[in-house]
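Following the same procedure, sequence and fold were stored together, as reproduced here.

>
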Amino acid sequence: MNLIKQRLVTFFQAYPKDALYFMAASFMNATGKAILWPLTTLYVHEVLGRSYGEAGMVLLYQALAGIAGEFAGGALYHRLGAKTLIVSSMALSACLLGSIVFVDDYWLFVALVCVNGFMNGIAVPSINAYVGFRWKEYRRKLYNAIYVGNNTGLAIGAALGGLIASFSFPLTYAVTSVSTFAFAVFLFFFMKPASHDDDYPAAASSALDGNGDGSVLRNLLNVRVYLFLGLGALFYYISFTLWSNGIAPYLTEQGYPLTMYSLLWTINGIVIFAGQPVTNFIKSTIAKSLVAQIVMSSSCYALGLGFILLFHQGYLFLVIGMIVCTIGEMLLLPAIPTFYSERTGKAAPFFMGLSGGFGNTGRMTGPTLYGNVYDHWGVVPVLVIGTCASVISVGFFLIHASLHKEKASLTQRQAVTY
């Protein structure tokens, strides 16, 4: 008990007080968002009376809107300012979610969900960039801590969502609307409207200026910064969606109850929360630079899925594969925003949005691909495709690492110019 108390004290002392407030608010927001995460498909089918195929199309439209939102959020960060962009997008998202409670028309529901997806897409790269700019001396630890906290919130929120939906499906949207609005109010009072001009070196600002006419085009043409990292993320997320669109139906087909699939994600959450010493060891020994961590992450995912491909007949082997894949996830997801914050200076929001668009394309492609393959040929081809996608992501991340190898030794306080 004293050891736990000591670790908590050490954790709280490691960050500025305002960063701790932000992490707590982010955790609450993630918990609220996760209430809806597993329930949109059921809401469309049970409440609106539409088929599961139509529910899948709603998720597709929402994902497309999210991709557009990530691009927009990255491009508008410096034009509108972080506070205006983030607070307004979160407040509008809260209003849209609240209005869904009173909607029973399918197409109006689709329109509201898509606009909400766009608003959420705007917020993601903007919040990541804000964290990197405001707490640049702590951002490596902060991105990781926020990732762990948000995933804990996702686990709690998903469990609460099922409980709330058992009373009322529309109530899930109302609760999420309230949590989102509370986060917007917190950010309104918390965020400083001051410029970030002093938050990155002048060299980085001049080389990758996020403002001014033509800057978006210049950044798009600077493909060595984002293209291979983005393509690697795209194929990583194609492999990531295998769990819900390959493993889930396979377990059902084998006669396992749904709780056994849920247990895999419970294990995922436990590993994320308790497995920090493992990833810290990897970062201090095998993968000391950010680009090395990114390569190692996809290597772990390929290893985990390859293991499942060979030994998927037993549930215990699925658990082992999930643990290995989760370690890869823990290495990758905090590393991407950290890379852009440290390496691209003022243009970080744009590149975060661009990279997020690649990742969402992978999330959108995987379910359709795996669903069709599973229907025709079963789980083995699905596992082959997922493993191959992970291997391809390793290849793209290796190309990205080779392009930035000479920069790997820079400290987190520096920004690289290109």
Notes: The chain has two domains: 18-198, 200-418. The radius of gyration is 21 Å.
